[in-house]
């Protein structure tokens, strides 16, 4: 009894068309690589300055198309198998011409790993484009994380440098008689350095205010920049070591509170000179 003829359906026809299309694209890639190899060979033989004319007259290719085909050969040729030679079978053998072109944007050392990890041969063009976009996004996020980490280190360095400088200034300051201001500073210095004592000379320049206004503006900008670095550092430290972040936050908060309280009533009232009898 004869075998029944398999019923032809739109689904079966579509599957056959897609299979033939895929096979055609793979054959197209193999052909493109072979053309690229021969173009490179010809380029070495054609006289200097005649390459463009030779392409137009001999093979009807533009220089842009020729360079793309040569690039395909240079990037894929050594590792490409057309499927007939099983000894050279690689993950690249399952790619189509379009997929190969899209992957030219990847560094050579990363391309084969990407192909294997993402099963490029089984992807549609749209899915491959999305996978490449996701990879670019992940690389950008990695780069941003590295930059934030550098900012974190810079912020910690700025904090440590500020504390170190304040400690040096405190060490240079002569001891003062006990008074409410000193008690406040000593209480703060138990955990943080106190601000230095200012011994200012009398100004005789009528335009001195200009200099000090500029100095105030510059100092405020420095404080603002350092505060941004501080908050960036604390943000990064939150994800790395929350306990250490909280410790550094409290240290910074004590310093900021003391500075805010000091500047609110600055300068302190002048004290009478002490005269020894």
How many beta-strand elements? 0
Number of domains: 2
Q: What is the makeup of the main sheet?
A: none
What oligomerization state is this entry in?
single chain
The gross shape turns out to be elongated
Mean residue pLDDT: 77
**SSE order, one letter for each helix or strand:** HHHHHHHHH
User: How many alpha or pi helices?
Assistant: 9
The percent range for strand residues is under 5%
Uncertain parts: 83-89, 176-187
> What is the straight-line distance between the termini?
137 Å
Tell me the structural class: mainly alpha
Helix percentage range = 55-70%
What Rg do the Cα atoms give?
A: 37 Å
Describe this structure in words.
- The chain is mainly α.
- It has 2 domains: 10-123, no CATH class; 143-264, no CATH class.
- It is built from 9 helices and no strands.
- Residues 83-89 and 176-187 have low confidence and may be disordered.
- This is Preprotein translocase SecA.
